[in-house]
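tool_log.txt
---
The assistant was asked to compare two proteins side by side. It first ran the structure predictor on the initial sequence, then on the second. Raw inputs and outputs are pasted verbatim so the downstream comparison step can read them without reformatting.
(1)
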Amino acid sequence: MTKHAQRKGRIPSSQVRRLIWISVIVAIFALGATAAVSLRAKRPASSTQTDVTNTNLRSRVETPVLLNPQTGQVRPLTQEEAQRLADGLKQLANQSTDGLQSVRHADGSVSMDLQGRFQNVAVAKLDEDGKLIQSCIDNPEAGAAFFGIDPQLVGVKKAASKTNNELLKGRDR
């Protein structure tokens, strides 16, 4: 510290720089902590229309993990639970083109609003041993096969399933 700074009662510049750096570091940590807390906090369902739609879709598909109290094993779905799951799969993995309109633009390009259809959906379940199994599906039939539910619940025609099975049997010969 210089004699002039001592006489005037000033803080030396090295201490000022140190205080500034400490303040910057504390501010960065505070911002990081605030961001982490805000990411963990639940967003209100009414924040946007998309959030409401996604929440509704998730609540239709999600089924709580139900264990058999005597064995501790995952129990099979009830008919009602399987139907709710199938309804959600039909909506999430919808591959239908019904009602979709293409729009031709002035520059010659063509676009189409897919209205939430043609999506890949990440799915997961617990197997009999309680291990997590995950997959990605892009159609309701694949979802039905993954969850082991009747394909007719998701709208797959029984005749089509028989034809596929017959074709597979024919290949083995």
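(2)
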Amino acid sequence: MTHALARSRRTRQQRLLPAATVLAAAGLLGACATHQGPTALAPGATVSQATSTLGTPTGRYTVNGGERLEYATGPMGRQTYMLDFDAQGKLVQSQQVLAEPRFNGIRSGMSRDDVLATLGHPSDTRPLPVQHQTLWSYRYQSPFCQWFQVSLDASGKVVDTGYAPDPHCEEYESGTQ
């Protein structure tokens, strides 16, 4: 193959690559637009409809005489949706709960079950043997590269809460903080 022919093929491939990339991205965006997420269910939907649409929940809780379904989603566990159903099994509301207003409602003395029903399952769990505690950490979307943490004592009661640097953020991984 001559240099001119090889260069012509490379040039054509270089021109086609951006077009192929745009087409692939458009296909992915189209798939996302038709995705049935937790907030796509209309009020009044049943628990059965929710589980058939969204799959098996990551948690189930009894709340106010009804049921709450937890759906943890998103990259690195940064989103968790709670769907609240009334006593008749009808959807009342759905919301993304990994956010500072919800975190700030977690108080000392709350039970482990109350924290789970409020925030869902943590992104990370670590024992704190010296303090005889367990540390739950929740990743969430934040411009500050932090996560929310809950310390639980041996009986499963909240001892303390706070915000700390998320070790998975790039600036902390690279050591450039």
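---
observation on (2): The CA atoms of residues 43 and 158 lie 33 Å apart. The chain has five helices and eight strands.
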